[in-house]
Amino acid sequence: MTDTQDTSLAARLAARFGDTLAISVVRRETTVELAAADLLAVATALRDEPQFRFGELIDLCGIDYLGYGQTEWETDTAAGDGFSRGVEGAAMGRFNWEGRPLPGRSPRRYAVVVHLLSIENNQRLRLRVFGEDDTLPVVPSLTSVWAGVNWFEREAFDMYGILFDGHPDLRRILTDYGFVGHPFRKDFPLIGNVEVRYDAEQKRVIYQPVTIEPRVLVPRTIRDDADLLQAKAEAADHWREN
């Protein structure tokens, strides 16, 4: 795909939909952002109209923008031979609720991203739709436009808690029926809420409070810092003494 094709697609989208879409082209990738109320009409037009013909829905996924742009890694000291240490307790899922991360550059928290492919025109397009209510994010289901999106929407519901209005069978697909919460939300505890084990006395699988201690993972890189040099010297002394 050439830059001219990308520009042409953006121009055709702007001419057809006007202010309905916010269009951007970055690194030859065209992205449009639109309101949830306009999604079904725009999606149907993108599928059916000859100038677009996006007949294939490649992927649909959810995004949680809570704490967008924040990180637990000190990247200022990163070098070609290693990374910096993790900052204790700064990541999503390892904080108390009063000190929780707040939304960053995005005014809304949950979004749905859809990737489309036009085989006839050899073009790709990304759609992004935000849920209007962060406490109960809802977007229209695209199953009436692309039937194959059924399980993608179920996964986004399961992992992010995004509801798809009009979905014929919206239920969890990766977690079990008794699972509490949505694992891909940024404020979901990394250690989880509960764990399961087999109880020999009850002869069944039971739920119990999670017993894993939270910790910050550190990349396993080779470092020539003072701690390692001291450890090597102490190990050498121990070997000579014995």
How does the SSE layout of this entry go?
Blueprint: H1 3-17, E1 22-26, E2 29-34, H2 39-48, E3 56-64, E4 110-118, E5 123-130, E6 138-140, H3 150-160, E7 163-165, E8 194-199, E9 204-209, H4 226-241
Parallel strand pairs: 2-5, 6-7
Antiparallel strand pairs: 1-2, 3-4, 4-5, 8-9
Descriptive account of the structure:
The chain has 242 residues and is of the alpha/beta class. It has a domain at 3-68 and 103-187: NADH:ubiquinone oxidoreductase Nqo5 subunit (Beta Polymerase, domain 2), CATH 3.30.460. The chain is 21% helix and 23% strand. The chain contains four helices and nine strands; from the N terminus they run H-E-E-H-E-E-E-E-H-E-E-E-H. It has helices at residues 3-17, 39-48, 150-160, 226-241; strands at residues 22-26, 29-34, 56-64, 110-118, 123-130, 138-140, 163-165, 194-199, 204-209. The chain has a five-stranded mixed β-sheet. Strand 8 (194-199) and strand 9 form a beta hairpin. The longest helix is centred in the last third of the chain and has 16 residues, at 226-241. The radius of gyration is 24 Å and the shape is extended. It starts with a helix and ends with a helix.
